[in-house]
Amino acid sequence: MRIRWDGGRVWDSGLGDFIEASVAYDTETGDIVAIGHPSAIRADEVRSIRGLCVLPGFVDVHVHLRDPGLTHKETLASGLQAAAAGGFTQVACMPNTKPPIARAEIAEDIIRRGREIGKAEVHPIACLTVDQEGEALADYEALARVGVLGFSDDGRGVQDGGLMRDALTKLAALGKPAMIHAEDESISRGGALHERAAARLGTTAQPGSAEAAMIARDILLAEETGAHLHVCHVSREASVALVRFGKSRGIRVTAEVTPHHLLLSERDIHRADANWKVNPPLASEEDRRACLAAFADGTLDVIATDHAPHHPDEKARGMDEAPFGMVGLEIAFALLYTGLVREGLVPMRRLVEAMSERPCRLFGLEGGQIRPGARADLVLVDLDRRWTIDPSAFYTKGRNTPFAGQSVVGKVVETIRAGRVIFREGEERLS
Ligand code: DOR
Question: Where along the chain is Zn(2+) 1 bound (predicted)?
Fold first, then answer.
């Protein structure tokens, strides 16, 4: 069946702007069939979307879905519903589950269950080292065969440079990216917060060199091996400079930045509330500005939420003992639209590129663009609607966000993946 949406503003990926047009998609083929004047587009069903905008489905290459084994924090169902509610049509989930995604059967099971749930599409990311222990490489060939997006020990860095070199050599041959959590643990020593926030609040500090030192090492290794190195959650000015250096040398390095590292700094942490604890820690105002400038100019390629749900009891253990992480899927778009686009700091075309087009292009995924023939991965948003972030209304099981109570503009109303509705505002939570 062909469905046509009339009266809204549609993102034209070629133009990089909204146009006043109708868009039609086919629920059987799952593709966009036409964009243009309604009189020129035959349809079986017509719907008015007056006052709303259509964007290409968002794609997040870095989330934690906690399934298998940590389902008190999140399940595949709650995480993928939260993703769809945030406008994400595809997400890639990190392997720090229990057991970790180190075997092909575990990745296959996530893909199969994800399809059954029928919300956002899930792409597992597999371990770089067996069970993320940093001692031996995982079986990349077997994991690549079942279609993992890439390899990462996220939550931990690979401490042994020689082992990382071996990993990148193999991944270069396989054509799969290494998605690195850059943290030299001999420097970070498990520190909870940025140096200044730690001093202020009497907790342990994580020096910024812990991140930058490992990025420097891995960029040099990527140059030697020819592998695609994707740097996760860049947070410091020195790290930004290193990514820029790598790109300027023609090394295959890409990078992501989170909404929280673009919008918050250590200065915002006024009390020892572990909802502010995230790894890498919220950094200085200068670091935040460097990330923002690098995001605006495309050096930091994509937005990733690093959605990291935790149980409230775990977050209540105090700053030093609580686990790192913040949820992000349901608030990312509104936070960035409100804080960056409406403030005139970043144009809409860069945000759409970073949330939809570029992650698809860099990781070889379908979707990411609105044009005839492309997969109908669409988000319907109300760009005028103001709402207040209320964690108790989230679809994710996680409530851990420092953005609770914040007023934002821009609401996801409906999400379509391959021509099928995967989220409609107000729908019931999956169990
Ligand atoms: O804050 C974080 N939480 N950073 C990470 O790298 C891991 C994540 C988690 O798994 O909770």
Answer: 62, 64, 154, 306
64 lines ligand 1 (CB under 6 A): yes
CATH 2.60.40.790 fits 2-54+373-397+408-424, yes or no: no
Q: How far apart are the first and last CA of the chain?
A: 30
pLDDT digit string, tens, across residues 12-30: 988 999 999 999 999 999 9
Is 60 known to be catalytic? no
pLDDT tens figures, 276-320: 999 999 999 999 999 999 999 999 999 999 999 999 999 999 999
DSSP 31: B
Residue-by-residue DSSP string for 71-96: TTT--HHHHHHHHHHTTEEEEEE-S-
Residues sharing a CB contact under 8 Å with residue 343, sequence separation 6 or more, in sequence order: none
CA–centroid distance, 323 to ligand 1, in Å, is 8
Instruction: For residue 93, give both structure tokens.
Output: 């989930």
| pTM beyond cutoff 0.90 | yes
Q: Where are the beta strands (DSSP E) in 344-406?
A: 378-388
Q: Whose CA is nearest to atom 5 of ligand 1?
A: 155
Residue with tokens 């930058």: 212
Is the peptide bond preceding residue 280 cis, with omega within 30 degrees of 0? yes
| SS3 at position 137 | strand
Fold that domain 57-363 belongs to in CATH = TIM Barrel (3.20.20)
Q: Where are the domains of the chain?
A: 2-54+373-397+408-424, 57-363
Residue 214 structure tokens: 């490992």
